[in-house]
Specification:
The protein has 143 residues and is an alpha+beta fold. The protein folds into 2 domains: 85 residues, no CATH class; 42 residues, no CATH class. Helix content is 43%, strand content 20%. Strand 5 and strand 6 form a beta hairpin.
């Protein structure tokens, strides 16, 4: 029997990773999440660590593929309108066209020039940070 483990998939949202993990555990598959704590405590490190990794046994990969494909096909059959509305609400990256986009603290231009000047004059750290959309596939940030 092959007891080798593999990274089945990666997620940039720890909640999504936990949902898939719970679905697999309910179906009797042994699995665990790697880098979940780092991604939860400091979401800005998600791209650097490669996201939350779902680890499964290599022998279970085909059965997991079948289970998740079956679950996805049932979801599409039962709620076609909901899926279309969710797809319309997703933000699309302006650079690469990916929908793997999140809104949050900017990493590139985190502070405005005024916040930086004020912080310099008062010898403190800037208190107001910019927020923007961040593409997790190509790293591009946009409003």
């Amino acid at each position: 029997m092959n007891d080798r483990t593999v990274v089945y998939s990666t997620y940039y949202n720890p909640m999504e990773a936990n949902i898939i993990k719970a679905k697999l555990e309910d179906s009797g598959f042994a699995c665990f999440l790697a880098d979940e704590n780092v991604a939860t405590l400091n979401p800005l490190y998600n791209q650097a660590i490669g996201g939350v990794k779902l680890i499964v046994f290599e022998r279970d990969v085909e059965a997991i593929n079948a289970l998740l494909a079956e679950d996805n096909s049932l979801a599409f059959e039962s709620s076609d309108q909901v899926v279309d509305e969710e797809a319309a609400d997703k933000t699309v990256c302006e650079k690469c066209g990916s929908t793997n986009v999140g809104y949050g603290m900017a990493t590139d231009k985190k502070y405005s020039i005024w916040a930086t000047i004020l912080a310099f004059l008062t010898l403190t750290t800037p208190i107001k940070a910019n927020k923007c959309n961040h593409c997790y596939d190509c790293g591009y940030e946009f409003k």
